[in-house]
Fold this protein.
Amino acid sequence: MAVQQESQKTSTKERLIDTAIDLIWKSSYGAVSVDEICKAADVRKGSFYHFFPSKIDLAVAAMDKAYSEFKCMMHELFDKSVPPVERFEKMMEYGLAHQEEAAKKYGMVCGCPFVSLASEMAPQDPQIREKVEGIIMRKRRYYEDALRDMVDEGLIAADTDVEATAYKIYTFVMGQLMLARIQNSLEPMKRDLRTGLFTLIGLDQSALKKSA
């Protein structure tokens, strides 16, 4: 009986988190009330506050879950055994495929859920801002490691400012995702992302994989 009750609690909490993730992906999380979240998750309001003191706490839990899943993929994409140029190639391929999958699920181009939530709520809430900044820093480290390997292999200039370039890569990719959401189209991103990213890195065009 105790196991069943614990399973029900986990299920309720997971439904709330999954509902929050859906809202962050497709719409305005900040404009949605706790009542609306509970209705969408089919959860009583009292149960909501049993697990989460506030809507912000639910948003943080949703980001933790979403990033935990994303982090596993980033570890695979940016594995040190993979050539550094190929790491970025794989990242772009995965990112576009993930966006296409999300667009089919939600009926719209969603862009980056972390950026969408941060741009909406970070100015008002330091907890959200700190969480998003932490995610940004962890993503940039993957880029920095790949860039250092590019320097070591002589693919880019030895005096490349790795940290600054990693930040430029992050802002470029996020800008592409934001424009894709605004335009509700992935076509410009498919056309411009690869060339733009490698030009930003300073990679010789001959090092790029030939398009199929």
